[in-house]
Amino acid sequence: MRVVATSLRGPHTAHAMHVCTDDVTDEALMTAYARGDARAFDALYARHRSGVYRYVLRHCRNAASADELFQDVWMNLIRARATYVPAARFATWLYTLAHHRIVDHWRATGQVLVTSTDTDDDATGAMNDITAARTDEPEQRASNRQLAERLDAAIAELPPRQRDAFLLQQLSGLSLDEIAALTGAGVETIKSRLRYATGKLRAALLEVRADATDGR
Q1: With bands split at pLDDT 50, 70 and 90, how would you rate the model's confidence at 22?
Q2: Which of 69, 96, 111, 180 is an S-S bond match for 187, by CB 3.0 to 4.6 Å?
Q3: Taking the model in full, what pTM does it have?
Q4: What is the CATH number of the domain that holds 61?
């Protein structure tokens, strides 16, 4: 990740926060930054840069493109700071900016926006299965590295909207309701996308297990 906070936050001001930013909410930090406090931006950037970067990188799988998209997200935040209103959680607002930039990326690269209609409610259980598969594999099965590589490849193969729902839930800390509001889809549609995505990812991990077992 080549972008650094000092290249994004704009000029310093004399009105910096004189409290420990660890105890300040995202919303308060963004409000302070909107008023000209560059240190507040630094704190927000430190808190959210990893999740936002992984979100854009998992969508485009190219470091150079991810760097560009990542910087665009933060530049859009800077441009919008004067109109920021803490009507929702800061994370929702930030990932809305990131989501819109990803949608623009889809359009520019001609990715098809495939939707799903299944409304199965078992997405959460499937997500837990995937997490366990990545972190608790027996020694005789595929290594954690193999699992991680196959999972990354399987995520990239998902239809864009299914991939987006999966990444938003995994990386942003947003609820299903917040993801639905962010993407403009219904909660049942988000559940459907998560079910399809997690089903495909779980199948990919099972393939790795089977290959590792056959190769013993």
Answers
A1: confident
A2: 180
A3: 0.76
A4: 1.10.1740.10
Rounded-to-10 torsion of CA 125, 126, 131, 132: 70
CB atoms within 10 A of CB 175: 14
Tokens standing for residue 99: 């989501």
Closest CA to 178 of 77, 87, 89: 89
Same domain, 134 and 180: yes
What was the pLDDT predicted at 212?
58
Tokens 């598969």 correspond to what residue?
133
- Find the domain containing 92 and state its range: 5-109
- List, in order, residues 6 or more apart from 89 with CB less than 8 Å away: 26, 27, 174, 178
Question: What pLDDT is attached to residue 167?
Answer: 95
pLDDT tens digits, 35-83: 999 999 999 999 999 999 999 999 988 899 999 999 999 999 999 999 9
Smallest Cα–Cα separation from 34: which of 10, 6, 18?
10
Same domain, 72 and 15: yes
